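=== RUN LOG ===
request id: a7f3
mode: sequence -> structure
chains: 1
length: 352
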Amino acid sequence: MNDLISASPGTSSPVASAVDTQRLTRRKCLTRAACLSMAFSASYFAMPGRAHADAWPDKPVKLVVPFAAGGATDSLARALAVELGKIWKQPVIVDNRPGAGGALGAEVVAKSPADGYTLLLASGSMFTVNPFIYSKLGYSAESFELISKVASGPMVVTVSSSVPAKNLKELVAYGKANPSKISFASAGNGSQVHMAGEAFADACGLDIIHVPYKGEGPAYADLMAGVVQMAVANINAITPLLKGNRLRALAVTGLERSPLLPDVPTVAEAGLPGFEFVGWFGFMAPAGTPKTLTTKMYVDLREAVVQPHMKRYLSEQGMSPAISEQGKLAKDIAQESARWKVLVARRGITAN
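=== RESULT ===
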């Protein structure tokens, strides 16, 4: 018998049927794979923030500075805006919103749309001190995506020429002989300049009076005029004002002397060992800003800080780059907050 099975006209052999079935199955698989691929692509590009991140920024970005023009945060923001503007190919506009130790500006950003077009350059004390001195604060660290630190730098113990002290030991002696007669200026309640002054007074056992201003610019104008007698000022903001004879720099609060003021000793060298205060500035976006955007901001921020113009600026201002690993800023804030909570309670500091 023939091993092949013959078929009647109009009917398919078992072999032909099997082949047709395989072809149909293959077609179905290919069709299903194509559909799945299209669905994946659609869902990938429709992921929250992805399409936005690909296009962002397509208009100017606002960088809020919560202090008046002329201070350290303001000048850093303006230098940073130039470099980020080059990277983003959009203008970065600095918007000064001074008041309440930075709280007013922070609230503006915290309540802004989380779309990447309103950002914050903050001083560290806004998150490590303000929660302990303001009974009602319209923001917290949780109100923001904490992208990274940007830069840090020491402070300078500075006195008006009306103060007879020529060095740190003489200032401490003068302050103890004249309790409550030295007033010190700051950029506002809870600002880094305020807390540097409080930390210094606490370490020296001085009774001095705090006078808050809406930013470093107006604070140092009154310091030069002799309206207030002292400030522990951001080095980049105060150095240009030391060229005349109206102010005297007595000590730098870092562990090493600053290249900007090589003849000015550190606080430790001047007679107060162990004292250190370094201010820092952080870059933030409103909470809920898509991860794709904040990651891009972080990468671009790192690129901006190493640009020649930015590196030169930081060096000229006595600051150093301080880009932190993603996620580290939140840990730093928690650690510093614990220390400041103790000092605030001990000195009875309040902004209310």
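=== NOTES ===
The first helix runs from residue 14 to 45.
The CA atoms of residues 260 and 305 lie 20 Å apart.
=== END ===
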